[in-house]
Amino acid sequence: MTGVSAAEWHLPTRCAPWTVSELLAHVRVVIAWLPGMLAAPAPARAEVSAVEYYRPDDRFAPDTNAARIALAQNHAAEQLSGAALAEDFDATWQQVERLCRAEPEGRVVRTRHGDPMLLSEFLLTRVVEVAVHGLDLADALGREPWLTSQAADLVQDLLLGGPDEAPTLEKLGWSQIHFLRKATGREPITEEETVEVSRLGIQWLTLG
Asked: How remote is the C-alpha of 187 from its chain's centroid?
């Protein structure tokens, strides 16, 4: 994102009403929950997995979505420029990485939705945010997707229920990135594909 021009920061994205700058601000906001979560007392045990985190409940209600939209817009508006926003995002993820690496294995955190989760499981949901919205940003900017193979594999395994289900993509005839786009609503699914997805027992996550 450091190579984005001043005009490109104002381009629309598929995640309406966010612009490019507001969408990056959203990704920064969802990463920036971590310091506060790590500073808070750890729950006694984890009760929610990464898959269960994406259950359809109040976290995707209209008022929650409105607050999510406003948070990103406000953060983007606070930055002096798109370049400043990119620098802020860079500093944020590096701080979060340092804090998370210092935590012991099995660390449990509580999300802003109240979910007690393993830190590793919550971080998987952050990979989903960075990976999927990375596709959105690349598309809005007219660039080739910069999704890493490691992130793509993690999101694929989450969506399919584990690495053992990877052959499912071969049955569907989809490439990995094609699957990620369809499974997250970035590309439409035809009626024939819907029937095949149902036959294979694939269940999409609620991603908002």
From this structure: 17
CB atoms within 10 A of CB 190: 9
- DSSP state, 115? -
* Threshold 0.90, pTM exceeds: yes
Query: What φ, ψ does residue 12 adopt, rounded to 5°?
Result: -75, 155
- Tokens 């900017």 belong to 141
Q: Residue 17: is the preceding peptide bond cis (ω within 30°)?
A: yes
The answer to whether the CB of 99 falls within 8 A of the CB of 37 is no
Tokens of 3: 């190579």
- Which stretch of DSSP H or E encloses residue 159? helix 149-160
Sequence-separated (6 or more) residues with CB below 8 Å from residue 67: none
Provide the Cα torsion 113, 118, 121, 122; round to 10°: 40
Task: With H, G, I as helix, E, B as strand and everything else as coil, classify residue 10.
Answer: helix
How is residue 101 written in tokens?
A: 């690496």
CB count in 10 Å sphere of residue 30: 19
173 and 145 Cβ atoms separated by less than 8 Å: no
CA distance 66 to 68: 5
pLDDT tens sequence across 90-137: 999 999 999 999 999 999 999 999 999 999 999 999 999 999 999 999
Answer whether 104's CB lies under 8 Å from 128's CB.
Answer: no
Residues contacting 77, CB < 8 A, separation 6+: none
